[in-house]
């Protein structure tokens, strides 16, 4: 594991001194330091392939103190870290989730400079057993969602970590996937560690009460939700409703608050409809369309449906041309994202995508597209740099 920058701990101490911070390191063994005040717990040898043992050991390791009380201990532990040995990434991720599961809404930041090659989730075993690794990470992701834990994944430039597989931990739990350098690592961790969790166990149900079918609805199991999350729905309505000026929609949100209180929120609105394409194009929200297209196409790509992703990108490109003709408006960052993507849609292959062949750089961009948003966060990478990366990714894909 690459040596961490103590500046991250200083940032957390200054911004959120009452938060608990725990340290887990991994090479050919996993070491749980917790808040740095106790003797570390080491998991090695046969234990690296025993998921029940790892979960039990990590769950029993308490982290009673906040960083205001443990800053000096953690800083010293970080300074003593050295890079060596193999990469027991899977067991370390499992132990971290178990450690964080006692506090719903917690975050795990998984930093690695190489692919997992020992213990659970090993990606360098014989080809016949490699299929077990993706299953392990999918199972762990669902386990984290159930416990209200968000996982973010960080790798380093110039390394090969199989982000297409381990990135699912972030994709499913609501975290982020980033490739960083030593110089940008601290800033990225600060951005990820912001206390922005709103709810866990979120289910969004969109009802269409005007449809003839009973219980006509769309259900989305969202899981963990942060302030920046945006979700879009796509649907079609029967032509017989075209004579109406408005249509009713109802959104039901079921979730748990940070203190684990169960809540249901219901939002009902009448939304205008039209049969005039010119009126429609003049009032469309381009930011929402851009977010939807990015999320939809990224999801299709990760599922291997690249032909459908290509078709969706082409349709989006045509629509944006029409909108710009009727709407002489300025585009935002998300629209720049969609523009750069649509300009490259012809580079998609015409056959299903093998995720194991997806480079880390391509996987990073696709996962970021899946969590595209129209509202900028406090920390935003330079747009020009990201646009160049997207073009390179589309060429690689």
From TrEMBL:
Q: Where is the composition biased (Low complexity)?
A: 334-343
Q: Upper lineage ranks?
A: Eukaryota, Metazoa, Chordata, Craniata, Vertebrata
Query: Per the UniProt entry, what species is this protein from, by scientific name?
Result: Xiphophorus couchianus (Monterrey platyfish)
GO CC, alphabetical: COPII vesicle coat; endoplasmic reticulum exit site
Q: By what name is this protein known?
A: Uncharacterized protein
Q: Molecular function (GO) terms listed?
A: SNARE binding; zinc ion binding
Q: Which domain of life is it from?
A: Eukaryota
- Taking the record's annotation, the residue ranges forming a coiled coil are none
- Which GO terms fall under biological process for this protein? COPII-coated vesicle cargo loading
PANTHER family for the chain: CIRCULARLY PERMUTATED RAS PROTEIN 1-LIKE, SEC24-RELATED PROTEIN
Annotated region Disordered: the residues are: 334-353
Q: Which InterPro entries match?
A: SEC23_SEC24_subfamily, vWFA_dom_sf
């Amino acid at each position: 594991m690459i040596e961490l920058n103590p500046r991250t701990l200083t940032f957390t101490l200054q911004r959120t001194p009452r938060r608990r911070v725990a340290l887990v390191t991994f090479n050919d063994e996993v070491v749980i330091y917790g808040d740095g005040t106790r003797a570390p717990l080491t998991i090695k040898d046969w234990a690296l392939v025993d998921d029940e043992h790892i979960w039990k050991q990590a769950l029993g390791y308490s982290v009673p103190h906040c960083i205001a009380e443990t800053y000096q201990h953690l800083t010293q532990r970080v300074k003593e870290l050295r890079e060596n040995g193999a990469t027991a990434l899977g067991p370390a991720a499992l132990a971290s989730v178990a450690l964080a599961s006692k506090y719903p809404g917690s975050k795990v930041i998984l930093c690695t400079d190489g692919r997992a090659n020992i213990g659970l989730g090993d990606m360098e075993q014989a080809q016949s057993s490699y299929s077990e690794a993706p299953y392990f990470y999918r199972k762990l992701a669902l386990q984290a969602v159930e416990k209200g834990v968000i996982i973010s994944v960080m790798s380093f430039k110039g390394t090969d970590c199989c982000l297409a597989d381990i990135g699912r931990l972030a994709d499913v739990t609501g975290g982020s996937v980033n490739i960083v350098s030593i110089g940008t690592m601290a800033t990225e961790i600060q951005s990820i560690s912001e206390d922005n969790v709103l709810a866990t166990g979120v289910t969004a149900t969109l009802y269409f009460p005007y449809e003839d079918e009973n219980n006509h609805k769309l259900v989305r199991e969202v899981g963990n939700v942060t302030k920046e999350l945006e979700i879009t729905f796509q649907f079609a309505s029967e032509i017989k409703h075209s004579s109406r000026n408005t249509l009713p929609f109802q959104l039901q949100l079921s979730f748990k608050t940070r203190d684990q209180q169960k809540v249901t929120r219901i939002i009902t609105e009448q939304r205008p409809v039209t049969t005039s394409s010119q009126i429609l194009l003049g009032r469309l929200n381009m930011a929402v369309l851009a977010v939807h297209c990015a999320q939809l196409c990224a999801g299709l790509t990760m599922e291997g449906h690249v032909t459908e992703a290509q078709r969706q990108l082409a349709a989006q490109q045509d629509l944006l041309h029409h909108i710009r003709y009727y709407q002489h408006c300025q585009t935002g960052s998300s629209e720049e994202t969609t523009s750069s993507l649509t300009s490259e849609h012809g580079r998609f292959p015409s056959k299903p995508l093998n995720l194991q062949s997806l480079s880390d750089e391509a996987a990073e961009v696709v996962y970021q597209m899946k969590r595209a948003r129209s509202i900028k966060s406090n920390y935003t990478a330079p747009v020009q740099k990201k646009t160049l990366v997207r073009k390179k990714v589309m060429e690689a894909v």
